[in-house]
Specification:
The complex is a heterodimer. In chain A, α1 runs parallel beside α5, α2 runs antiparallel to α3 and α2 crosses α9. Chain A is mainly α. In chain A, strands 1-2 form a two-stranded antiparallel ribbon. Chain B folds into two domains: 188 residues, Response regulator (Rossmann fold); 154 residues, 3-Layer(aba) Sandwich (Rossmann fold), CATH 3.40.50.2300. Helices cover 42% and strands 22% of the residues of chain B. Chain B contains twelve helices and 15 strands. In chain B, α8 links the parallel β9 and β10. In chain B, α2 runs parallel beside α11 and α5 crosses α6. The radius of gyration of chain B is 23 Å and the shape is globular. The chains are: A mainly alpha, B alpha/beta.
Chain lengths: 289, 400
């Protein structure tokens, strides 16, 4: 029994990483209808920032806000140029632009941070284990689960319960009407992009303690995040969370029972979900005018 | 705004002049007998093996610099091409190197898939080729070729010696194998199991995980629950780092002995990132920064790049030493391929990997295999310390 309890905790910690990146991508992709394939680069950048932050001897807990701020700042710059000009354009143009940028970022990061695999120097406080019914479980993973939970709640509250959130959601449905209310929709989009980039960076900072950081991680993460968003259902906060949990649990338990077929099984189940619910687990209710 | 001073006409004139200059110079240099020998390094400077590729280039460049940029009395130029770790890209680059650049010697190659992809092209062109890292057994067996040398190990040489050591020193039964589910993982683990069984050992569960597994925790928990007497594991690069760290995170590092082929504990590629999580690991490898043969190189490399060498840099350096020995035997006349071959097959070359002889059946190196244990080095950081040497291990070769 305790064995499955620990495996459940493992699944939760992996799900939280998927959720953090998925939420960032979902914010931009489904709420703002902008295909942002540079999202994996924010994740990797966040990881490198945290590693170098702690490596330089700065207070470790500040590493996570720092990753959020720096990745968010990159998001802000990108929003000014060139994203801003591509919001009204077709998805194909957005894919071409952001994919190209992600390749450039990958090269820049290899040049700046080197091609070696590096890991987060985990702070002393988080390095131990707790014993869950006799089996060891790393404290760092509990930290990831807790942080992710708090962030998801905060984000849900911001998007679903505040005026800012309402404005972002309104922008997507009818930008023209929002403009006539006197709101600057351009600025609202900027906030969305910065928030998403920051979340990507934060996910990377937390994840680097589990996954390390190395060239190529950006692509792997982007793929997982896209999977989470699409299976969850475009435009749905709850769907993204649900699908991150599903993917996390399926991946973990297929590793437990059938490690050899882990990828096959987890991707197969996600594909089956899409066949049954083509628009994702949770479909956003749109008012038809 | 001074850029107007360079017009297109100037550029054209300059291009024409330099082309003319090159055209005039070429016959003169050829007549002088000092045309450079062109050595091409095919490696991965982007993609999953980028870190290995950088080290490889650094190792070979160090050797060329130490040789005074010349071999057998002729200057040496190095051409480096990036195969991105992809077979199709490598094929394109090798074709270009052979037909357009007219290189004299090819070397490098990290991925076994790349090595197998370019094998027919270099074999058909009879181009002198030295495979520095790719370990696929097939290249020493059915895919061996008269002009392809392998100054490196085969998977069998590491899996086999790993099994000998495990059976003698660790446990005779109750172990688990764990490998990345792709060609290299299957070979290392398969060769380990064969030899271990031949010795009389009994292997327990065999686990395979997809290459690029993000989270090993579920499997690490399985290990904790199974409590095996040892784990024979193979993962490359970032996978190795994650596996070792997660073993430590779950407090299994001191409970379960991990043994594997050297890549799992590579001094340059894995240990700096894995840190103390690597301590206590045992590996069989043709390379060790702690081996006497590699001392001079390790010191020079540490000075040049401020890091201790691992397989990629040492292999590239040793490949360079082999190429240099061959070129010196023909006094720089690289066209005498058969004489060059004869030199390499007749006597050992002393390299940073150890004394290296070549098997005349398949041009495969016969190498000393070190058993390294990861202990704290002089600087307190994890260091591959030689605890035993299996001398002159020879792949079974074409008949296997």
């Amino acid at each position: 029994m305790s064995y499955y309890l620990v495996q459940t905790l493992n699944a939760l910690s992996f799900s939280v990483l998927l959720m953090l990146t998925g939420l960032g991508l979902s914010l931009v992709l489904s709420l703002m209808n902008f295909v942002n394939l540079t999202h994996g680069s924010f994740f990797l950048l966040g990881g490198y920032v945290a590693i170098h932050w702690i490596g330089a001897g700065a207070p470790w807990w500040m590493a996570f806000p720092a990753a959020f701020v720096i990745a968010g700042a990159v998001g802000l710059v990108l929003d000014r140029f060139p994203f801003g000009r591509f919001y009204p354009r077709t998805h194909l143009m957005q894919v071409l632009l952001t994919y190209g940028l992600s390749v450039i970022f990958a090269d820049l990061m290899r040049w700046g941070f080197g091609a070696d695999t590096v890991s987060l120097p985990t702070p002393e406080l988080l390095r131990g284990v707790v014993f869950v019914a006799g089996l060891p479980f790393p404290i760092y993973r509990l930290f990831i689960i807790a942080t992710g939970g708090v962030l998801a709640l905060g984000l849900w509250y911001a998007i679903d319960r505040t005026l800012w959130g309402a404005a972002i959601r309104a922008c997507v449905i009818d930008r023209g009407i929002v403009e006539t209310l006197g709101l600057n929709t351009r600025r609202i989009f900027t906030v969305g992009v910065v928030l998403a980039a920051g979340l990507g960076g934060l996910g990377g900072a937390l994840g680097s303690g589990m996954l390390s950081a190395y060239p190529g991680l950006d692509e792997e993460v982007l793929l997982l995040a896209l999977l989470v968003v699409v299976v969850g259902g475009l435009g749905s906060f709850g769907g993204t969370v649900l699908s991150a949990l599903l993917l996390g649990f399926v991946t973990t338990f297929s590793r437990v029972w059938l490690p050899e077929f882990a990828n096959f099984l987890s991707l197969g189940i996600m594909a089956a979900v899409l066949v049954m619910w083509p628009s994702g687990l949770v479909v956003r209710k749109m008012r038809q005018v | 705004m001074t850029s107007t001073s360079i017009t297109r006409r100037h550029l054209l004139a300059a291009t024409a002049a330099s082309a003319l200059g090159l055209g005039l110079m070429r016959p003169v240099r050829a007549a002088g007998g000092t045309t450079p020998i062109k050595i091409a390094l095919v490696t991965s400077l982007s993609g999953p093996f980028a870190a290995l590729g950088e080290s490889m280039r650094a190792g070979l460049e160090l050797l060329i610099a130490e040789s005074g940029r010349q071999m057998g009395g002729r200057p040496v130029t190095l051409l480096v091409e990036d195969d991105q770790g992809k077979p199709d890209e490598a094929v394109r680059k090798v074709r270009k190197l052979l037909s357009q650049d007219k290189v004299d010697v090819l070397c490098g190659v990290i991925s076994a898939a790349v090595a197998l992809a370019i094998r027919d092209i270099v074999a058909d062109a009879k181009a002198l080729t030295f495979i520095s890292i790719a370990a696929a057994n097939g290249l020493a067996r059915e895919a061996a070729s008269p002009y392809i040398f392998r100054p490196t190990k085969t998977s069998w040489m590491l899996g086999h010696t790993g099994a000998l050591w495990t059976y003698d020193k660790i446990a005779k039964e109750g172990g688990i194998t764990l490998g990345s589910d792709y060609a290299a993982g299957r070979e290392y683990v398969g060769d380990f199991i064969n030899t271990y069984r031949q010795q009389g050992g009994k292997v327990g569960q065999q686990l395979w995980t997809p290459l690029g597994t993000a989270d090993f925790a579920p499997i690490v928990m399985n290990l904790a629950a199974a409590a095996p007497s040892f784990v024979y594991a193979f993962f490359p690069g970032a996978d190795a780092v994650r596996f070792l760290q997660q073993m430590r995170d779950f407090k299994l590092q001191d409970k379960i002995r991990v043994i594997g082929p050297g890549a799992l504990f590579d001094q340059e590629d894995v240990l700096p990132a894995a840190g103390d999580a690597g301590l206590g690991g045992v590996n069989t490898y043709h390379q060790s920064p702690g081996a006497p043969a590699s001392a001079a190189f390790a010191a020079a490399y540490l000075k040049a790049r401020n890091r201790i060498p691992g397989e990629a840099s040492t292999s590239a350096y040793a490949t360079g030493q082999v190429i240099r020995a061959g070129i010196e035997a023909v006094a720089g006349d690289i066209a005498q391929k058969d004489k060059l071959k004869e030199r390499l097959l007749s006597a050992p070359v002393s390299t940073a990997l150890g004394p290296m002889r070549f098997d005349a059946r398949n041009n495969q190196a016969i190498l000393d295999i070190y058993v390294n244990e990861v202990r704290r080095g002089a600087d307190g950081k994890p260091f591959n310390t030689v605890v035993h040497t299996y001398p002159a291990i020879q792949d079974p070769g074409p008949k296997a």
